[in-house]
From TrEMBL:
The lineage of its organism: Eukaryota, Viridiplantae, Streptophyta, Embryophyta, Tracheophyta. One of its GO terms (biological process) is 'de novo' IMP biosynthetic process. It comes from Cephalotus follicularis. GO terms for molecular function: ATP binding; metal ion binding; phosphoribosylaminoimidazole carboxylase activity. Keywords: ATP-binding, Decarboxylase, Lyase, Nucleotide-binding, Purine biosynthesis. It catalyses: 5-amino-1-(5-phospho-D-ribosyl)imidazole-4-carboxylate + H(+) = 5-amino-1-(5-phospho-beta-D-ribosyl)imidazole + CO2. The keyword Lyase applies. This is phosphoribosylaminoimidazole carboxylase. Signal peptide: none annotated. In the C-terminal section; belongs to the AIR carboxylase family. Class I subfamily.
Length: 406
């Protein structure tokens, strides 16, 4: 040891102050929904302080956060004030005020992932252009500004045609399908008209939807989770199966596309890459989320390091953990909102009661103050020795739900 640090000093050899615990960095999260809540859960385990910014006083993360600032993540002054109180700023939703994030970055605020990434991702059309430039396979697409343009895209891509709004899309709200030229106009109207900013995608004739969760550390090292299958109903994620039941070659291809897509973006954190698998074994990219994602909820119970812990590790600058599965299989089922009010809560509770008696099942309830149809209220993950067993357990849990409803 050198003479300088051989005596009393509170500084270490590299002269940085001694860190108490895992990290003393305050992590600021824009958004306090269920993703923020699950980030807070894992943060408490490591005593990492997570502050959330969300307009809802009783947002899902509020009860668990180190601090909850009630305010809009879409308001410049609010985001600036919030950012000044944090060591690193991250997001649980991509629909934030990105111009402010860019300004804050110029002032030296540490945003992970980078504002440039949020800017690309929050506009689905820009996102497609970006990935096309990086030679990532995706369904053909084009911008449309008027009905003539929409008709031309229909002539080019055929029907059904997927029309999407460029911004503020989630859970399929922002997508409309036109089955024929006659349906174009009503599909456009249902999305709020051309002024909203629309584009079209060629229909992807997928046989399965897959997703891969990819983590990137601050040193740009990348780590991928097992490829999963996601099952959507009416554009909204219902079930996730991990690992996906696809040949090894497809898993490899899906992981490669996910790796390449994330490599083209800047910043640390979790990224979720949604993919289509076609009958002829092609993988096409659907979209990327720059944050933990519904397709990775199973990792809480099924992986050595969950996507939420991995996200925290990545943005704080800790080494990434092990993403591999510690159980042979996992299945996740979203608890979606039903009817308004008490009948909906009753149904959800009946489902939860049945889940609680299934070995290997874990119930997550997000504690949202209100239930709305198709709103994500919670989820149930079952882990076990094989997908066949888990499917049977899930089916029996859901079958009883149907008989309850009748
Ligand atoms: P999320 O909640 O995942 O953010 P979103 O509102 O951004 O959803 P998308 O991911 O664009 O919506 O689409 C939702 C679903 O619609 C997809 O998972 C898929 O099932 C279907 N879909 C999207 N694009 C296409 C397409 N080009 N062809 C066929 N189906 C599609
Ligand atoms: Mg989306
Ligand atoms: Mg999606």
């Amino acid at each position: 040891r050198g003479s300088r640090d051989s005596h009393q000093s509170p500084l270490r050899k590299d002269e940085s102050p001694v860190v108490h615990g895992v990290s003393e960095m305050i992590v600021g999260v824009l958004g306090g929904g269920q993703l923020g809540r699950m980030l807070c859960q894992v943060a408490s385990q490591m005593a990492i302080k997570v502050m959330v910014l969300d307009p809802l006083e009783h947002c899902p993360a509020s009860a668990l956060a180190y601090h909850h600032v009630v305010g809009s993540f879409d308001d410049s002054a609010t985001v600036e004030d919030f950012a000044k109180r944090c060591g690193v700023l991250t997001v649980e939703i991509e629909h934030v005020d990105v111009t402010t994030l860019e300004k804050l970055e110029q002032q030296g605020v540490d945003c992970q992932p980078k504002a440039s990434t949020i800017r690309i991702i929050q506009d689905k059309y820009l996102q497609k252009v970006h990935f096309l430039r990086h030679a990532i396979p995706l369904p053909e697409f084009m911008q449309i500004d008027d009905l003539e343009g929409a008709k031309r895209s229909g002539d080019l891509f055929g029907y059904p045609l997927m029309i999407k709004s460029r911004k503020l899309a989630y859970d399929g709200r922002g997508n409309a399908v036109a089955k024929s030229e006659e349906e174009l106009s009503s599909a456009v109207t249902s999305l709020g008209g051309f002024d909203r900013g629309l584009y079209v995608e060629k229909w992807a004739p997928f046989v399965k939807e897959l997703a891969v969760i990819v983590a990137r550390a601050r040193d740009n090292s990348i780590s991928c989770y097992q490829v999963v299958e996601t099952i959507h109903k009416e554009n909204i994620c219902h079930i996730v199966k991990a690992p996906a039941d696809v040949p090894w070659k497809i898993r490899k291809l899906a992981t490669d596309v996910g790796y390449k897509a994330v490599s083209s973006l800047e910043g640390a954190g979790i990224f979720a890459v949604e993919l289509f698998l076609t009958a002829d074994g092609q993988i096409l990219l659907n979209e990327v989320a720059p944050r933990p994602h519904n397709s990775g909820h199973h990792t809480i119970e099924s992986c050595y390091t969950s996507q939420f812990e991995q996200h925290l590790r990545a943005v704080v600058g800790l080494p990434l953990g092990d993403p591999s599965m510690k159980t042979p299989a996992a299945i996740m089922h979203n608890i979606l909102g039903e009817d308004k009010g008490e009948p909906g809560f009753l149904l959800a509770n009946q489902l939860i009661q049945r889940a609680l008696s299934i070995p290997g099942a874990t119930v997550h309830w997000y504690d949202k103050p209100e239930m709305r149809k198709q709103r994500k209220m919670g989820h149930i993950t079952i882990v076990g020795p094989s997908m066949g067993i888990l499917e049977a357990q899930l089916n029996s849990m859901l079958k009883e739900e149907t008989s309850d409803v009748q």
